[in-house]
Design a protein that fits this description.
NiFe-hyd_HybE; Yope Regulator, Chain: A; 22% helix; alpha+beta; Tat proofreading chaperone HybE; two-stranded antiparallel sheet; 169 residues; NiFe-hyd_HybE_sf
Length: 169
């Protein structure tokens, strides 16, 4: 299923540095996941009514950030951007990245055609009531949300003393 070139000293480590994608990798990711989906169809959590969907990635801090819907999961992915070179990491390692919305913990992953990427599951397995259209909309919305600044609006204390106290700070 998930294939990657292994390092002889450590069978779970990637063998080489990973060069970045000059162009948006969304279509390549979608195509590769469609290939993987063929081998997963017999699994009990596989949704026959859901197709692979991957909206265009967004270049964020020189890395490609995107979302992915497959018949078994919805995830956030990070791939190296143009002119980026990622060092070899062990498959399965965890990396926490601070995005504008919040910090997310990603897992180092790899497949044959994309030997090094980071993935963070948003929903796995997929909810049984989720339709293809809802899944695609959720992917699009999640991608926008990840790059949005959180808005926290505290309810002000209208007590007169607090108003003056806040003015003195």
């Amino acid at each position: 299923m998930y294939r990657h070139q292994k390092n002889e000293q450590d069978p779970t480590a990637l063998a080489a540095l990973t060069k970045g994608f000059a162009n948006n990798p969304a279509e390549k990711v979608r195509q590769e996941m469609q290939i993987i989906a063929q081998s997963m169809q017999e699994l009990p959590f596989y949704r026959q009514d859901i197709s692979c969907y991957c909206p265009n990635f967004i270049l964020f801090e020189q890395q490609w950030l995107g979302t992915l819907l497959t018949p078994w999961t919805m995830s956030v992915l990070v791939l190296p951007g143009p002119e980026q070179v990622w060092p070899a990491r062990e498959i399965g390692d965890k990396i926490t990245l601070q995005l504008p919305y919040k910090a997310l913990t990603f897992t180092v992953s790899g497949i044959e055609a994309i030997p090094h990427y980071l993935s963070c599951s948003l929903q796995s397995p997929l909810h049984t009531a989720l339709t293809q259209q809802q899944g695609e909309q959720l992917c699009n919305d999640c991608l926008r949300m990840l790059l949005s600044l959180p808005s926290k609006q505290d309810t002000p204390d209208q007590n007169r003393r607090n108003i003056f106290r806040s003015m003195l700070k």
